[in-house]
Write a structure and sequence with these properties.
260 residues, Serine Threonine Protein Phosphatase 5, Tetratricopeptide repeat, 69% helix, globular, disordered N terminus
Length: 260
């Protein structure tokens, strides 16, 4: 089986994310007791944890969600957020357990099912991931369908079911809300199948629609050089250098330009 890098697209959807609340510390045990007796304090902790999660401070976020879970056990949203922390930390067994707990309390919690599928995907359990993603797609109200189409495409790509993978990647790039990574994966499949014009078109569209994602411009530049169009490759490689001059991809672009 061929290995493909898995770029997980996870929808972090939680009512706690919409509110801003600064984390404060206190030495007063009395105040802490008052907070713990306040049923709204669990929600405050979830809001704080959501902010930390979005900042990439996964360990700190995890502690907030654990504390919230102690105060209000059985909250499906909190289990979902715990799972996201564990997933980002690479603790897949814990993530799987958390998402499954969320679904035990709320079987129709589509976010948690999507995230559990992403965990199976990260663990290489592609058939289980397919089951969860397919279930997510049966929810016609789910607002993150394209992310799920992308993840489902990855599960098929990992199993060499490239026709099914292409079909799902195509759905993931429908606008608005197209998934950037789906362009790259679809272009790689087109290139593998010898459809170079389609691969170029997909990468051109990605580079145009996502100018800050220089992966598309670099990949396009590499492809254009490969098919004998170095002059067309030059502006894309220059864009990579100008957009992110200190990035490793910029170094690669410079190297490619030096050989033209």
């Amino acid at each position: 089986m061929r290995f493909f890098p898995v770029a997980l697209v996870l929808a972090i959807v939680c009512g706690a994310c919409a509110s801003s609340s600064k984390t404060t510390t206190t030495a007063s045990s009395t105040r802490r007791d008052d907070q713990n007796s306040n049923p709204l304090y669990s929600l405050t902790l979830m809001r704080q944890g959501s902010q930390l999660l979005q900042q990439g401070r996964y360990d700190a976020a995890l502690e907030k969600f654990k504390e919230s879970n102690e105060l209000q056990p059985g909250n499906a949203t909190n289990f979902n957020m715990l799972g996201l922390c564990y997933l980002r930390l690479g603790e897949y067994d814990q993530a799987l357990q958390s998402f499954s707990s969320a679904l035990d309390y709320a079987p129709t919690f589509t976010d948690a099912r999507n995230n559990r599928g992403a965990t199976y995907l990260a663990m290489g359990q592609f058939r289980m991931a397919e089951v969860d993603f397919s279930s997510v797609l049966s929810d016609s109200t789910y607002p993150h369908m394209k992310d799920t189409f992308y993840n489902l495409g990855i599960t098929y790509m990992q199993r060499d079911l490239n026709g099914a993978a292409e079909e799902n990647f195509e759905r993931a790039i429908v606008k608005p809300g197209a998934v950037f990574e789906a362009y790259l994966r679809l272009a790689s499949l087109k290139q593998e199948n010898g459809d170079l014009d389609a691969a170029v078109s997909l990468l051109e569209e990605a580079a145009l629609d996502f100018p800050n994602r220089v992966e598309a411009a670099l990949t396009l530049g590499q492809l254009l050089i490969t098919i004998g169009r170095p002059s067309d490759a030059r502006p894309y490689l220059q864009h990579v250098i100008e957009a992110q001059p200190g990035n490793a991809m910029a170094d690669e672009a410079r190297l490619l330009l030096s050989d033209l």
